[in-house]
């Protein structure tokens, strides 16, 4: 799934799917939800941003991170035209 998600899009998330490298996930990081790509490298797990202005997040036991589920569908939010 190529990331073309924008603020306001509706995401379908499956909590029963085990996250795998390359999949987009919803994660709670320090109490805040984020959408990131799940990645593994050298035995470590990362949440990778698609936006180059953000840094990867390393998942380790010290961090308060919970993977909520894997994104299975993204619906584009189309706003009403203003009059």
Summarize the structure.
The protein has 83 residues and is mainly β. The protein is 0% helix and 48% strand. It has strands at 10-14, 24-29, 32-41, 44-48, 57-59, 65-75.
List the helices and strands and how they pair.
Elements: E1 10-14, E2 24-29, E3 32-41, E4 44-48, E5 57-59, E6 65-75
Descriptive terms for the model:
83 residues; mainly beta; 6-stranded antiparallel β-sheet
Rounded Rg:
14 Å
Q: Which structural class fits the helix and strand makeup?
A: mainly beta
Query: Quick one: biggest sheet?
Result: 6 strands, antiparallel
Q: Estimate the strand proportion.
A: over 45%
Give the overall pLDDT as a whole number: 86
In total, the number of strands is: 6
Per DSSP, the total helix count is 0
Distance between the termini: 35 Å
pLDDT < 50 runs, ≥5 residues:
none
Q: Order of strands across the widest beta sheet?
A: 1-6-2-3-4-5
Order of helices and strands: EEEEEE
Assign an overall shape. elongated
Helix content: under 10%
Question: What does this entry look like structurally?
Answer:
- There is one protein chain.
- This protein is mainly beta.
- It is elongated.
- The N and C termini lie far apart (35 Å).
- It has strands spanning 10-14, 24-29, 32-41, 44-48, 57-59, 65-75.
- A six-stranded antiparallel beta sheet has the order 1-6-2-3-4-5, with no helix packed on it.
- The protein is built from no helices and six strands.
